[in-house]
Amino acid sequence: MGSIRRNTAVDHLPVRLIMSLALIAAIVSILCGASGWMRTFLAEQQIEYQCRQLEASLRTMVQSGATRDVDDPLAAEGAKRVQQFTVPASVVFLSFGGNPDPTNQGWFTSELLGHGAAIFYKVQGGSTRVLWFPEESFRFREGLCVDSHWTLHESGHSFIIHQGGKYELIFEHVEKNHENFILIHQTDDIE
Fold first, then answer.
1. Which of these, 54, 76, 33, lies nearest to 41 by C-alpha position?
2. Integer Cα distance of 125 and 89 in angstroms
3. In whole angstroms, what is the distance from residue 114 CA to residue 110 CA?
4. pLDDT tens profile 91-107
5. Which stretches of 133-164 are assigned E, i.e. beta strand?
6. How far apart are CA 174 and CA 137, in angstroms?
7. CB neighbourhood size of 25 (10 A)
8. Least confident among 3-17, 19-33, 64-78
9. How far apart are CA 23 and CA 9, in angstroms?
10. CA–CA distance from 123 to each of 19, 34, 45, 94, 104 (Å)?
């Protein structure tokens, strides 16, 4: 009887080995799936954190009240903030003023949404996220350089970043036709 038990135990070893390998494979596949979700989550959190820092900085800028008339090339500078963004490589877009992909089909547009008082962003594997701001003080517009002078596009455009990297953006409190806007452009040598 003792020899029968020993043989039964030996017969169970391959079954236990296969069950252990299957369990390890299941755990590894769960961790791989979760790591993709975690990368998306962390990239979204990184962008949102930087946008919230920008929001705090722009609130103080807007409260200062100093604006520049974009139609007057000799006007004094408006209040400015320089903000550095480290955008993750997985970004699909980061947009100030409008949703560049309203249909979610990859057809990008620079049209403004409402008064342009929002920041939209999307990373690969995630959905479009939006941060809304008060329309009376946050009206984002892309800057256009004309004769070494930053002004607004006539029709108004949102400022869009389509790829990851480090960006240094200038946000200036400006005025056009007695309406206040936040003009956005990348840093350059133009003063």
1. 33
2. 12
3. 13
4. 999 999 989 988 887 78
5. 140-146, 149-152, 159-161
6. 11
7. 10
8. 3-17
9. 21
10. 38, 16, 10, 9, 12
Torsion of CA 67, 141, 155, 147, to 10 degrees: 70
DSSP state of 65: -
Tokens, residue 32: 């791989």
If you search the block for the tokens 């040598």, which residue do you land on?
Answer: 189
Amino acid letter, 8: T
161's tokens: 């970043």
> pLDDT by residue (tens digit) across 113-131?
888 889 999 999 888 999 9
Q: Could you tell me which of 103, 107, 92, 94 has the C-alpha nearest to residue 140?
A: 94
Take residue 110 and report the two structure tokens written for it. 């620079």
The whole-model pTM stands at: 0.78
Q: Where are the alpha helices (DSSP H) in 65-118?
A: none
Q: Indicate the SS3 state at residue 125.
A: coil
